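Minutes, methods subgroup
Present: GH (chair), OT, SY

1. OT presented the first of two proteins processed in the latest run. Sequence and C-alpha cells recorded below as shown on screen.
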Amino acid sequence: MASQGARADPVVGREESGESAEGLVAPASAGGVDIGREGVGVDAPNPPGGAPATHVPIPAPAPAVAIIDRNYERIRRMGATEFEGTLDPEIAERWWEKVKDVLNLVDCTLENRLKYVASLFVGNALIWWRSMKRAYEPKEITWAEFQREFDDKYRPKMYRDKKRMEFLNLVQGDNQTVAEYELRFAALAKYAPEAVVTPEDRCYHFEQGLRPEIKKGLAVRITNFKTLVESAVRMEEAVIEEKKKGKKRES
C-alpha cells in the first residue's frame, strides 16, 4: 500500500513514495525492456549459436499536436467583423445578417457557430456576452437561445414591431421603380413572416403595394413571385412609354 504522501507519476503511471526512480527500474535482461539515458529499447533474444543480443530502440512517441480550428480566422477573411455593441438596431442588424451569411458558408455545428460569433464580440458586446452566459449557468446556452437574446438586446421588440407595420403598409412610391420596391419588400418581409407564409400570400401583398397604373395592367392573378415581379417591370416600362407618347402629342 502506498504511503499517504504518494503521488501519481504521470510518466510511467505508477506511484512514487519517496523512492528514487532508479531503484524501481528492473534490470535489463534478454528479451526485457531496457530503460536508460538514451531512451527506451528492447534487447532482441539471442539467436541460435550464442551471438550477442542486438539492442533495438523503440521510437519515442510523437509529441501531442494542438488541433487549431482555422474557422476562427476563416470567418474574418470572409467578411465577419468584430462587434462592440451599438444602440442603433439598424447597425446591429446589418452586422448580424452579414455574420449569418458567412456562417452559412462554413461547415460547422450549431455549438461551434456560437463559439465563432462569440469570438467577434469586443467591448460592451463582450461584457454583455459574459453576463448573459453566467445567467444561463450551469446550463450551456444554445444557438436558438443566443439568437433570441441577441434580438432582445440589440433588435428590441419595439423596433421589430415598427418594421412589421412598415411592411404591412408598404406601397410603391411615386418615384420608386418596381425593382426598388421589390428590394424594400424583400428586406421587410422577414418582420411579418405570418403575412407571407405561402407564395400566394407573398404575391398578394406585393401586388397590393404596386402603383395603381401598374397593378391594373396585371390582368390575371399571378402566384409565382418571380413571374409577378417580371410582369410588373414590363407593365412599368409600358406605362413609361405611354407617358412619353402622350407628351409628344401634347407638344
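2. SY then presented the second protein from the same run.
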Amino acid sequence: METERPKIEMGFVEVLKDVSVPEKKQAKFECTVTKEVPKVMWFKGVEVVTPSPKYEIIDDGQKHMLVINSCAFEDEAEYTIEVLGQRSTAQLRVEGKWPTEPPSFVQSLQDQTVKEGNTVRFDLELSHENVPVVWYRNEVKLHVSRTVLTYTEGRRHTLEMRSLSLDDTCQIKAEAKGFYSTAKLTVIGNTAVPIFFLSRVACLLVVTFGQCFYFKACFFKFELYFCKDE
C-alpha cells in the first residue's frame, strides 16, 4: 500500500533580487518556487507585464524569469511576481548619464497631520520626467498594497496611504536617483467616533452603612470619569 505523499506548500525558495544594469542592456529577474504551478503573473508597479519584444517571460519548472530588453530610464520600477497569491518584489535601476542636469525636487514633501481611519497623500514634483521614485516609511521601502498606492504623472509623483491607524505615525521619504525629500506623518485619534456604553451603571444602588461598593462600566479607548452629585 502506497503512502500518500505530503502536500508541498507553495513558497519561494529564492525570491527576486534588486537588479542594476547599464542603459540599453538586458535585465533579468529570477526566482524559484517550491513546486510547479500552471501560471504566474508579472507586474511593473501595478501594471500587468505580458510577453512582447520588450519583455520575455520564461517558465522552467519551478524556476521563473522575467527578461527586460534594452533597458531605458523609464523601465526603472518595482517588478513583482505573483504565484498562487504569494508575491515577491524587487527594484530595477538603470545606470547611465542624464542628458541634462541630474533631477532635483521642484516641490518637496510636506509634513501632514491626519485623523486615524482617513487617507493621506504625499505629493512631490521633480525637474525631470521618467525618473523613478522609491518611497520609504521609517527607512523601510514601501510596496504597493491594498492600503498603499503610488501614482506618477509626468514629473509629479504621489504616495497615497489609506485607512491610517495611530501606528502609522512615521517619517516618509522619497528617493529619486540618490536625491531625497522627507516629511513627517502624524496620525491623531479620531474623537468624532461615537461613544457608547457596553453596559450601564445601575440607576439606584442601596447599601448598608459602612459597606464598600463599586460601579462598573465598559468603555472603549476613551478616558472615563465618575461624578458625584453635591
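Chair's summary of item 2: The CA atoms of residues 148 and 209 lie 61 Å apart.
Next meeting: continue with the remaining queue.
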